[in-house]
Design a protein that fits this description.
mainly beta, 32% strand
């Protein structure tokens, strides 16, 4: 069985589980999605996102991928289409207070530039 090694993981800055910020990603393949940041390297962000959102806290299977940092915008937890039940609520409350952008559909132009 072949082994897979991605050098980005060796230098990746990581968030702790429960303290992963929510982001809106404008991906050419997936369209607009809401995800959590696992980590980052200069110019790229490693995200975790649900494949199928059933409801606000039931998301089923998740996937991960690297996306260009230019396609990622930080959003508040309350503005995400889904939330993780493993979130550290006090951490998110403090972090969300620092964010002015709201990920409401009427604040983002259709062409994908917030």
């Amino acid at each position: 069985m072949p082994t897979y090694s991605d050098p980005r993981f060796e230098s990746m800055n990581r968030y702790m589980p429960g303290e992963r910020p929510y982001v809106q990603v404008l991906d050419p393949e997936l369209g607009k999605i809401h995800a959590q940041v696992i980590g980052w390297v200069p110019g790229e962000v490693f995200i975790d996102y649900p494949v199928s959102i059933i409801d606000y806290v039931t998301t089923g299977q998740h996937d991960v991928r690297w996306v260009p940092g230019s396609t990622v915008t930080r959003i508040r937890r309350a503005d995400s289409m889904w939330v993780s039940t493993e979130d550290d609520d006090p951490w998110h409350t403090r972090q969300d207070a620092k964010i002015t952008f709201r990920a409401d559909p009427w604040t983002v132009p259709d062409h994908g530039t917030p």
